[in-house]
Amino acid sequence: MNWLDRHGYSLNLVAVLLWPLSLLFGVAVRGRRLLYKHGLLHSEAVGAPVVVVGNISVGGTGKTPLVARLVELLREAGYKPGIVSRGYGGQSAEWPRHVTVDSDPSQVGDEPVMLARRCRCPIVVDPDRVAAARVLLETYDCNVVLSDDGLQHYRLRRDIEIAVICGSRRLGNEACLPAGPLREPPSRLREVDFVIGNGAARSGEYLMSLRGETAVNLNDPCVSSALTGFRHGTVHAVAGIGDPGRFFDHLRHARLRLIEHPFPDHHRFKPEDIHFRQDLPVLMTEKDAIKCRAFAAEGCWCVPVDAWLDPDFEEHFLKRLAAIALAKGIRRERGKPGRGAGTHPQPDVSRE
Fold it and tell me: CATH for 3-209+309-328, among 2.60.40, 3.40.50, 2.40.230, 1.10.287?
């Protein structure tokens, strides 16, 4: 359990002592947003509709699976989406970087590589998301930009903002850093276009659920097993995500017996992190598998999850985007029915 998990999700002495610093932090982020809002700091448009998927809290809320689902949804509606990301954790000496299924997650970040494998669409990463979006549009035949995270990256002008909230942890003690987990005050949620509740939704929010009932072998992706097949014994559960407990709860919901191994978000895994004395299956998240596949043993499996969204959200989101695309002169092809993205032509993303 990290520091924020211990102190940021309840009212406790540490949080109370840090509250004055949180108030100053909140004033600073509000002031920065007002400077952009009134044009004193300049935001830049990139010529195509920009949809930002982010959150106001530190840690994982399920943004990346939502982005993957939005790629499918946009393709079904006849758009040509591409993704930009900061590439958190990437150590590349040069930016921007074009991400492919074979990209090194240590260079471009784990989540972009996971999205490349899942979505098979153009992805460009750069700490400067404006530069990433411009390269994306100049290089590939995209007409919608999805920003994975970046709700606070105001220099990239956005047309639609989607904020994701963890349905169980919510906003913690509702304090900004360092007393709480928030990057911006709770009032920021009133300004976004859509609020998605991952696992549970309150009034004014749309529900998202993550579903994944199959494990895929890391050594041979053609080999898979239903999670129910692991009920006969105990498994090692490995998670290096923002909220490891969410993954562990997912496995427990499938009635598995776990030995939990939580790691920090974006952890750089080493062989000893997933090799244990007990000869038991090792189950991990899809994001962690991206970094562990090269040294995974035969008994290592990942559990991919898909985001399932409230149909009302999908309808309202597409209507909002259609109006924006029309105003920008963006034309789209006739969409194809079906949830899967595999039935759609894939753009060439071979450039690294």
Answer: 3.40.50
